[in-house]
Amino acid sequence: MANKSIQDELKDYVAMFVALKEIVDETSNDILMTRPESDKWSIKELVCHIVDTEHNFTLRMKKIIAEDNPMLMKYDQDKWAEQLNYMEWDMKETILLFGLLRNSMAGILQNLPAAAWKRKGNHEETGTLTLRNLLEDANHHCKHHLAQIVANKMKLEKS
Asked: How many domains does the chain have?
């Protein structure tokens, strides 16, 4: 399968805010808060995780753009979910934050020269990543969790 163009990746990057917002807006608070299984995150927790991961992707992308071969931090998603108490977050603010992060970063990414997409950083766990890798990873991460959210919503609404 051929790689998508940068422009197609950027379109997906921006469009995912609308998709996530629509799903959350169409889902009752009870469904948002319910864990499909005791050891699985609720839709609300998944959305909060998406936003926290977006913070990390945004920081990593900015570091690669602005610094030469920067170190890119890892984070413990389970500790963040627990210690940041995702179940108490305001969903309207959380979705808005995701949109602001994506749209502001998209504005930066859309104006980069072609050579910038090959700039690199070193991730603590996965090694060398290019700016393009990070954009693709951000899109993949969000798509993966959007599919998980849709599946959980359907399952919970049937029960």
From this structure: 1
